[in-house]
């Protein structure tokens, strides 16, 4: 990936982010769930219990 990349991850997919560069990483994550507007919050995500395997 490089600056400007866009990646779609299926809802059932597991994801993790790691900055391998020497400058700060800025990331915009947009999550969308089919629901009544305003009924979905950032807390709707699930933090994985298992460690990430890089």
Structure, explained:
This protein is low in regular secondary structure. 0% of the residues lie in helices and 0% in strands. It contains no helices and no strands. The protein is extended and about 40 Å long.
Question: What is this structure's SSE topology?
Answer:
Blueprint: no helix or strand
- Rg over alpha carbons: 14 Å
Provide a count of the helices: 0
Q: End-to-end distance, in Å?
A: 15 Å
What fraction of the residues are assigned to beta strands by DSSP? Answer: under 5%
What's the overall average pLDDT, rounded?
Answer: 77
Q: Characterize the largest beta sheet: strand count, sense, and whether it forms a barrel.
A: none
**Pairing-aware structural class of the strands and helices?**
little secondary structure
Indicate the overall shape: extended
Assign a percent range to the helix content.
under 10%
Total strand count, please?
0
Which parts are unreliable, with pLDDT below 50 for 5 consecutive residues or more? none
Which structural traits does this protein have?
single chain; 54 residues; little secondary structure; 0% helix; extended
What's this entry about, in short?
The chain is largely without helices or strands and 54 residues long. Helices cover 0% and strands 0% of the residues.
């Amino acid at each position: 990936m490089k600056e400007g990349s866009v990646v779609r991850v299926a809802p059932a997919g597991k994801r993790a982010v790691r900055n391998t560069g020497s400058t700060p990483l800025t990331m915009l994550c947009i999550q969308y769930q089919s629901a009544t507007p305003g009924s979905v919050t950032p807390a709707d995500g699930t933090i994985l219990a298992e460690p990430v395997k890089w």
